[in-house]
Amino acid sequence: MENNKIWAMVEDGRTVTGNDFSHGDYKVGGYVWEVGDMKMLDRFIPAKGRLGLGEYEV
Questions:
Q1: Looking at residue 19, what is its pLDDT?
Q2: With CB atoms 3.0 to 4.6 Å apart as the test, which of 10, 11, 49, 53 could cross-link to 26 if both were Cys?
Q3: What are the helix (H) ranges across 1-58?
Q4: Would 5 be classed as within a structural domain?
Q5: Alpha carbon distance 3, 8 (integer Å)
């Protein structure tokens, strides 16, 4: 681990750095969304910024 980076080691021994460190909550028993195969959209989809999943008609 580089000395000039901000990082933390969580209770189960995992090391967390970068955006994961800045934006995460790493309590034991927590959960996260794992996102893969992301693609850019052809157009903007307006959203109200609420938590949770939503549906959008294509």
A1: 77
A2: 10
A3: 18-23
A4: yes
A5: 12
What is the domain range of residue 5? 1-27
Sequence-ordered list of residues with C-beta below 8 angstroms from that of 45, at least 6 positions apart, any chain:
56
How many angstroms separate the CA atoms of 17 and 7, rounded?
Answer: 5
Closest CA to 26 of 36, 38, 12: 12
pTM above 0.85, yes or no: no
Q: Give the type of residue at 5.
A: K
Pairing of strands 7-9, 15-17: antiparallel
Total domains in the chain come to: 1
Q: Tens digits of per-residue pLDDT, 26-47?
A: 666 777 777 888 889 898 888 7
